[in-house]
Amino acid sequence: MNKLIDSLSQIERTIIPYLNNPLDEIVKKSGLDKTTVLRALGFLESKGFLKIERKSKKIVDLAVNGIHYKKNHLPERKLIIQIEENNNKDLNEIKSLSKLSENEFRAALGNLKKKALISLENGKLKISASKEECSRRFQEEIFLEKLPINLENISEQDKSALESLKNRKNIIEIIEKKDISFSLTESGKEIAGKKISLDLIEEVTPELIKTGVGNKKFRRYDFNIKMPSIYGGKKHFVNQSIEQGKKIWLELGFKEMNGDYTINGFWNFDALFTPQDHPVREMQDTFFIKGVEGKLPNEKLVSSVKKAHEEGIDNSKGWNYKWNENESKKVMLRTHTTCLSSKKLSNLKKENLPIKFFSVNKVFRNETLDWKHGFEFNQAEGIVIDQNANFRNLIGYLKEFAKKMGYEKIRIQPSYFPYTEPSLEGSIWNNERKEWVEVLAAGIFRPEVTVPLLGTAIPVLAWGPGFDRLMTEAHKIKDLRELYKNDINYLRNHNILIK
Amino acid sequence: MTNIIFSRKEFEKHIKITPEIQEKITMFGTPLENINEEEIEIEVLANRPDLISLDGFIRSFKRFLGKEFGIKEYLIKKPESNFKVYVDKSTKEIRPYVSCAIIKKINFNEVKLRDLINLQEKLATTLGRNRKKAGIGIYPLDKINFPLKYEARDPKEIIFRPLGYDKEINAKDILIMHPTGRKYEHLLKESKKYPIFIDSKKNIISMPPIINSEDSGKIDVKTKDLFIECTGFDKNIVEKTLTIIATSLAEAGGIIHQVEIIGEDNGIFPKLEKQKTKISINNVNKLLGINLNENQMQKLIEKMGHNYKKGIVESPSWRVDILHEVDIIEDIAIAYGYENLVPEMPNISTSGEESKESIVKRKLSEILLGLNMLEISTYHLIKPQEVEDYNLKESLELLDSKNEYKYLRPNLLVPMLRILSENKDSEYPQKLFEIGRIFNKNIQKENGIEERDNLILSIIPANATEIKKHIDYLFKMLNLDYQIKELIKPELIEGRACSIILNNNHIGYFGEIHPNILRSQGINMPLAVAEISLEEIYDLIN
Questions:
Q1: How far is B515 from chain A (nearest CA, A)?
Q2: Residue B177 contacts by C-beta under 8 Å, 6 or more apart in sequence?
Q3: Do B377 and A486 touch (CB under 8 A)?
């Protein structure tokens, strides 16, 4: 008991004389603010003097827009006044007269139609109820006047108003309010109401250091109480993984490639021998961009790529169709970082060979967004341009990369891509989950790719593993939307990647 | 790429499935997706449509397992006197290429019939690019009176009973009313005339590539003799498609009878011509990093169903993927076994090099992390509502985005405000930053788009002074001097916002966000931000 009393802080000692009162009284009598009193009660609870009881209730209150509307009318009120003044006028005209935002207008229009106060015929807005009905206060308006209100006490009538307002932006909010009370334990009853004055040292001050401690004791600290957390600055976990990938390629002697995220069809597809009617070039897979057109590179390269497609190059038979320049000029968000490689090859000097490049960067696909689909991905691209490079080397690089990522076993199998031959697909062994995870995609660029870009058929080993599978594994993420959700609590508490 | 399901029972009539065989299926380049008592599901990649049917698959897989070698040869009968198809000039602009075959003495069962229908459908979707390059029609032979004519007519003059209908309708109505008509309507809609096959009694037997006539009938398990036509826009693919179907049926026991096509492109089909490719053993060994002699190479080539003689590979007519020597080399690698290729890291010395931009970005984030700032990473796309809220009408728009994000972000402020409004319940203060790519129209650029890397800092709750202190520190650490100039910007409070100027270039701004914006985004704390373009900094730091 004595030790406990020794460890009482200033604020605890301040409220002990008033502990026989309810919370509000303690705040008043002690002269402390409510937060401080609550903190002191928390400390006392952890020392076993009392027990805090929290009851929560839900309160419906005005949100930012709601406060504004309560003062200046709801959008539907503004709109109906506008329609009454300009009955049977064009929808767009009313819209601009009403000075409502797109969102507000849409909501107001919908609500008035639902109440059958107005109707929309041939693009014109008309009043369809009596004057009296129109000027009667809306359920929503009555409801806003009542706020704040306890959610449990809402009448049936108000419930429909609540539903209609809840879905609109920031009109009302439901706040959880906590009701706090406490009861004293046996030891609490012993000290409650007493004045505890202790002659203890609170803090080490410059003064104290000079004068010395003498016979006085320090107040004891209780480290078992819950302290407020602190948070440091931290890299986003996706970027932590990207750095890990980049580091591996740098260690293996690769130079980093950069480039635009938007690219035209020539570099993303044509230079990579992907025929113009290939499904990947359709809108349902790729994000094309409206209202822009790409410029093609020099004539010589364009005609060489065209030839590779139409009739073949370097003894190839080609794809046998009429190649269309306009298809190449379409601009899109890159679907793979392999377009960085095709650009890189086109301006490479032979005296710099052998040379190796990498990039770990974003690629895009026109996809829906749910727990297992996203539209942004990270790809770890690499190319090795070397007269003597071969298919076994390609497997060697992939194995080394996987090993440095922490995966000892890889398995490869035949695969197909329009721009590589031979091609392979590879999986890594996840030792925790005991399963193969398909992440590697690689091959040697076809001569139809390298001859136009490099001038001759030099082997170019190329790979573009999807990086996101490795990343979600490393961070134990199940829902792909979490990658870019930026929940600050999550980011603050997420462990750092030590690799 | 397409997934194919075979009946396990039919499969095992040829090859017994053991765990070892399962592994071999994947290593043959057709990943095994699923297997149970009844079925076996594999993935067939886009380069091997000849593996879509069970018969086609078994033909190649048997060789891969070493049970047979080289090109499978089929008996092929010359066209009987009236097995002719006259191709009218009117089809030239509409759907120009035709190839046909007759298969006799085929023995179907339910499974084999389903397999054929599946092959027809999958070939037309993949290789035929949804029937555009090539579409296929299959008919019982006994209902057709040869010779046939392939011609194009005004759709109003094309009247017949489409499959599944009990009355005659015209071609226009077929495209509107018939489910298959609606699905492929786009292939004919633009033409003035539509193509049809008519037999010697002037009966319309089909309107390719849409639908057969009900009267010419549907094949069933009892059908013994078949007529197959393939039409489309790609001569090569039309012929290949026909060859794949015909040889797959021949593999199942049918006998191929050729059909004579008379028109601008005369010929007798199917041709089953072997394709020749020159190959050099040096190229093979060099590209794969192995050391085969000619004899070993020949064995591997034959295992993949080709023939080899003195530097020349002959490939079967049903292979669509042999464009170049490298395609044979891949086949050799598959026959050799990918699992037998020993990984090797080459001993070449090159030095790694991080890009200048990456170095600058990394250093910037180090400085900011030292200031206790938390990095966020947001989507590069923004929502239509945001374009409206911030009046960003110039933003680049995507064509037909499938999700709620439809524009490229023109700055980092929009996503930052979204994240802040979604994090109202996280403990304050929140000190955030992001480094990322932004997109704006600029016709000077290669693709009409200017991309820049930007940095945004955001502190909430904070005022403009607080954010300026951070900018000061940042530039001091970079050893750069910047100037400021008062700025009016709708999102910021006037008098509490400045341009950031570096070497006379406006590279960004800092300031306090206007309460109107905060309210509209549901943010209820004072917010100060700074957004800076990094391009000038990249240049100066070099």
A1: 11
A2: B169
A3: yes
A to B CB pairs, distance under 8 Å: 290
Residues A394/A385, Cβ–Cβ less than 8 Å: no
Q: Can you read off the two tokens belonging to residue B194?
A: 């539509």
DSSP-derived letter for residue B21 is: H
Q: Could you give phi then psi for residue B471, rounded to 5 degrees? A: -65, -45
* Chain A nearest C-alpha distance from B289 (Å): 5
Please list, residue by residue across B428-448, b when 16 or more beta carbons sit within 10 angstroms of its beta carbon and e when fewer do. Answer: eebbbbbbbbbbbbeeebbbb
Angstroms from B152 CA to nearest CA on chain A: 23
- Which of A255, A288, A446 faces B352 most closely, judged by CB atoms? A255
Q: Which of A416, A425, A475, A489 to mutate to test the interface with B (most CBs of B within 10 A)?
A: A416
- When CB atoms are compared, the residue of A277, A391, A400 closest to B289 is A391
Question: Model's pTM, two decimal places?
Answer: 0.82
Decide if B399 and A364 are in contact by the 8 Å CB cutoff: no
Residue type, A147: L
All residues of chain A having their beta carbon less than 8 Å from the beta carbon of residue B236 are: 320
Give the CB-side neighbour count of residue A38, counting CA atoms within 13 A.
Answer: 10
Q: Do B334 and A414 touch (CB under 8 A)?
A: yes
Cα Rg of chain A, angstroms: 35
- Classify domain A238-493 at the CATH superfamily level: Bira Bifunctional Protein; Domain 2 (3.30.930.10)
One pLDDT digit (tens) per residue for chain B, 542 residues: 789 999 999 999 999 999 999 999 999 999 999 999 999 999 999 999 999 999 999 999 999 999 999 999 999 999 988 899 999 999 998 999 999 999 999 999 999 999 999 999 999 999 999 999 999 999 999 989 999 999 999 999 999 999 988 899 999 999 988 889 999 998 988 899 999 999 999 999 999 999 999 888 789 999 999 999 999 999 999 999 999 999 999 999 999 999 999 998 889 999 999 999 999 999 999 999 999 999 999 999 999 999 999 999 999 999 999 999 999 999 999 999 999 999 999 888 889 999 999 999 999 999 999 999 999 999 999 999 999 999 999 999 999 999 999 999 999 999 999 999 999 989 999 999 999 999 999 999 999 999 999 999 999 999 999 999 999 999 999 999 999 999 999 999 999 999 999 999 999 999 999 999 999 899 999 999 999 999 999 998 86
**B149: part of which helix (H) or strand (E)?**
strand B148-153
B236 and A422 in contact by Cβ < 8 A?
no
Residues of chain A in contact with residue B287, where contact means CB-CB under 8 angstroms, are 390-391, 422, 444, 459
Contact B378 A491 (CB under 8 A): no
A-chain CB neighbours of B322 within 8 Å are: 317
Domains and CATH numbers, chain B: 2-64 (3.30.56.10), 76-269 (3.50.40.10), 277-312+319-338 (3.30.56.10), 356-541 (3.30.930.10)
Could you say which of 3.40.50, 2.60.40, 1.10.10, 1.20.120 is the CATH number of the domain covering A62-176? 1.10.10
User: Which residues in chain A are closer than 8 Å to B334, comparing Cβ atoms?
Assistant: 414
Q: Judge contact between B217 and B166, C-beta under 8 A.
A: no
Which chain B residues are Cβ-neighbours of A233 within 8 angstroms?
A: 368-375, 431
- In Å, how far is A403's CA from the nearest CA of chain B? 13
Distance (Å) from the alpha carbon of B93 to chain A's nearest alpha carbon: 15
Instruction: Compute the half-sphere exposure of residue B234: CA atoms within 13 Å on the CB side of its CA.
Output: 22
Name the token pair of B63: 């060789």
Tell me the C-alpha distance between A114 and A95, whole Å.
18
Cβ <8 Å between A262 and B133: no
SS3 B27: helix
Q: Where are the domains of chain A?
A: 2-49+185-218, 62-176, 238-493
